[in-house]
Amino acid sequence: MINKLPNCSIRPSSPTIPSPGESGDGIHLEDGTYLVDSEYVDFSSLPIENIDECIGITRGASAVVRNCIFEGSEKIALIGGGDEEWRPVESGKWVVFENCIFRNGSRRMPEVQSNMSVLMVNCIIEDWCIPERQKSDPKKSRGFGSWAHDYGSIIAVDCDFIQTKGFWRGGWKFMLSDLLSHLGNAYNESGILGILNPFSWIPGPCRGLTASDHGKVRAVRCRKNHWWIRIQKS
Length: 234
Hints:
Elements: E1 2-4, E2 27-37, E3 40-42, E4 55-66, E5 69-71, E6 77-79, H1 87-90, E7 94-98, E8 101-103, E9 111-112, E10 117-121, E11 124-126, E12 146-148, E13 153-157, E14 160-162, H2 171-190, H3 192-196, E15 207-211, E16 216-220, E17 223-224, E18 230-231
Parallel strand pairs: 2-4, 3-5, 4-6, 4-7, 5-8, 6-9, 7-10, 8-11, 9-12, 10-13, 11-14, 12-15, 13-16, 14-17, 15-18
Antiparallel strand pairs: 1-2
């Protein structure tokens, strides 16, 4: 159910959106305030070349998203498009994720940018940086869980960051490609200082909740199932 803003507390058990719409996203929201309740977007059976985000909230949209599951895409959830032409209408907009699951993808669980804000409450972020859900282009192969940058912000409350597949996945070539892609992004953000920042050398499987390039994150009573998963406190 997707409504433009007025109760369900149980997530759906089977996919309600098994394929993307015309935008390439499972759910694509622009220009308005929305309520998304009890949707299950599952792209696990689709070739990743033919899909974009499970959910994209951009171009002036704010939303409350609750009791939803998003899984199986390379890019799970994008909050703020990052395009300069849309920045004035995205800046200051917000999204609340409540009782949602983000899992089995490469990155963006979620990614927040363009001075947008996200509050995540009682959410599960599970199995990011999955080789099978990444495109082959090495420049786009980096993986991460939840990430805020470009003045975006994430507050995570009572959330679980879980990796069931362990640290080493995809072999050394995959891990090296992931690391080099993160270093390339750090250089694009901050030049040589980005390369020298120790944070830039953190592998994708370790990036649970992180921020860079003027982004901010805060974790309140969040949990992780491995010591090597990074959850930035503030």
